[in-house]
Inverse folding.
């Protein structure tokens, strides 16, 4: 899952991805049970694997109120 997330971010590094757009990329036909918070958890796991700090991000930034972006 984290690989698909990173893949989406790498395809358009300047783009800010909404949680819904990332859900659609990761889970092609996601059901209502897959919620926005799911993306937050996966971004957290991706940051862990990359050694990224959410307070001082080097790779994945949170864009408040919008989603996530690759730095």
């Amino acid at each position: 899952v984290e690989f698909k997330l990173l893949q989406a971010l790498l395809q358009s590094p300047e783009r800010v991805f909404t949680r819904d757009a990332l859900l659609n990329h990761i889970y092609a036909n996601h059901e209502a049970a897959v919620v926005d918070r799911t993306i937050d958890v996966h971004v957290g796991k991706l940051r862990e694997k990359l050694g990224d700090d959410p307070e001082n991000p080097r790779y994945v930034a949170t864009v408040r109120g919008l989603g996530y972006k690759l730095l």
